[in-house]
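hey can u check if this looks right to u? its 399 residues, i copy pasted from the old doc so theres a chance i mangled smth
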Amino acid sequence: MASEQHSAEPAFAYVEAYPIALLGGPVSPAAVALVERLVENIFASEKRPTSVQKGRQAIGALMADLLDLHRGHSDDRHPWPGAHGMSPKDFPSKTLGFGHGIFLNVITKLEAAGLLTITVGQPRFRKAFGQVHNFNGQVTTFQLTPALVSLAASFGVELNAWKEHWAGAFGSPVAAPADEDRLVLRNRKVRVLGKKLAAEDTPFDKQAPGPAAILAGIDRLNRNLLRHDIGGITFPGLRRIFSDGDQPDFAWNRGGRYYSLPGGHRYEAMSAERRLERITFDGERVGEADIRASHLTLLHALLDRPLDLSSDPYAVDGVDRTLVKWWCTQAIGSSNPEPRQWATDKKATYAAQNGGRQLQADFPIARVGEAVVGRHPCWQNLRPAGYRPLISSSTRAKS
């Protein structure tokens, strides 16, 4: 018998959660009273006024974020936990108004009082083929218990009136750390034992023409955005993250998505409902434009090819519309332009909706891809535009 090449999969339960910024607090008399009750319970024996004030700010920020998430999503309304790193560096006191020690004291006592549930974060290391690999782990998550929600209601702080009682951010815009990279390049994610490893950052020459031009564009965009009053969130600016930096044909054409700079709210991780409810631009509520078949529309625009929108572009004979959309999203959005397996979240969604059936077994991704290319031949013409073809000639020849 061949020797075992890897260790057994350790117990690991991933908790889906939203990142919390801890930058808000109470704005109504009822919410202030609720926070004061919690302060009295947690800091009853504290003699230092500064510690009490910092604790008050930590409790208010935590309640603002978690009561917001406890309302759930617009589509399911199930409460969501909040996620936050627990290293001291994750608590810049100049930005938050409190540090790691104060926050740790607050959450420990709230948990002991039965008001907070904490799922401790953990890295995810596995030994495989003689090496230790770092898989995506889990940051610590927090969720309010029914007891705290009931306590809030007793003060008149109802979940469905969150905006009357809480603010998501206070004060002037937070500047991003001076040493924070506005342009990030990462290697391609690799798979070990069927699991994707966390992508590693890779160095690059910021003075080279390609990245220098991208950085100049990011700076122009940030200067323009930060001239305006962006309300409802703390917004320090944007950065771009490119992928596949270790691939021989990389030419700053992989990834490049915009993300919030660390130090503020990750607005892109909020649901559309949250963004529309919370964010304002120069005092006006924001809106979100929904481009029909956005991925296909943008792809055709990049290739300077017309797209017939008189009928549904995702309607492909013999293939469910949802599968077509999943394929297009995965093919464009992933670093692998020739997907051989469905993305993990799509497989899980399909199994949950179909009694545990396997998506790849029922609908092999290669066959779905061939059908999409037949409906939209432009997918075959990506190489002249600097993109790898999503369906190789060898694959088409076998069909």
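The first strand starts at residue 18 and ends at 19.
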